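User: Before I run my own analysis I want an independent prediction to cross-check against. Here's the chain; please return only the structure tokens and, at the end, one sentence I can use as a sanity check.
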Amino acid sequence: MNALSALAPLAPLAPFTPVVLVAALLVLRQPLMLILLALAALVHLQWGQGRLEYIAEDLWIALDKELILSIPMFMLCGQVMTRGSAAQRLIRIMRALTPRIPGGLAVACTLSCALDASISGSSIVTMLAIGTVMVPSLLQAGYDRRFSLGAVMSGGTLGIIIPPSIPMILYALVTETSVVELFKAGIGPGLLLTATFVTYAMWKNRHMPTAPFDRREFGAALREGLWALMLPVILLGGIYSGLFSTTEAAAVALAYAVAIELFVHKALAPRELYATVLEAARFGGALFPVIAVALSLSLVLTEHRVPTTLVQLVQAHIDSPLAFMVAMNLLLLAVGCVMTTDAAILVLAPLLAPIAAAYGYDKVLFGIVMILNLEIAYLTPPVGLNLIVAMGAFKQPFGLLCRAALPFIGMMLGCLALVIWQPWIAMGLVR
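Assistant: Structure tokens:
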């Protein structure tokens, strides 16, 4: 408490003090947990009653949310399917479906990423699950190295926009938005991005040789991958039909994934399952304290009407909703270059969502726009996670990976602009 009490002299400063504090700690490359704790302490001192011990009490209140339980279960489900044989079976189906299409193997890569994204909820898991198989196959088939790497890295980003999506769950938690509506709103942009990547793959590789469609191979691949194909149907069908809540759907999907990998595919040994559970537990152990502090901070900010103050300040300087949206996109693209997606959502979403609502933007739509911006950040240095992970997984230079991502970043920016211009792409299934 003594270290946090040192923030007391900052209390009389202007309402922008929290922004200055966060910016300073980011420049100093402090961990997210410290940033959030310092910000929570400052808010208590500046707007609250100066009782820092209330932070600990708020942590318990913040974690009393059933939806939080879905995060480790979705992550574990994706890892079980990846460590098992489900990803390879999905890839075989897509490869058997696309041989006659120009650039058919590249198209199969993107479609496999989209299909895996509907299971994993994570960009990194999707990229590694598909990329470890498809990158060697693409290179062996004569596809350009830069294109192959870019296709896999960009395909991996679909993991956070195609539901289920862990960043969508985090956004729903800190902004009190319906996660089911967010999942529905992610389908349109996810399909738009997938179609854009597929079209580019066909054009870029239009001179690659094609092969005749093999009905027998497709039938065999479909029979072999039927159990894996049923998972997104059960998961998303249960959520959208109202049969399951999001947390119940995560539990059902996890149980289904474990059952088919252990007893049907027999591709996952009990020892491997144990290691997978430990890995998911480590992820939860690192993420849950951050979520607790972020939700606690959101409660304090709301209680002391900080978002309302920020709305008034922003509206005093920006009149047009379009100007606000342009400014927010530039801010989020910049933030994505230095912060991870989860960190950016936990820190910024509680502050930006109310401002967006004041300009007439639905919280669900703004959440999708925010995630699309941060999705692009997976491919932008210096903190682009897909770039960093791909550098180790595929043993490629960082500079080459950055150049490989450039055309896909351009396409993603175009899709982002289209969603903002035509919001029905995201909201058509919501209402």
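Sanity check: DSSP finds 21 helices and no strands in the chain.
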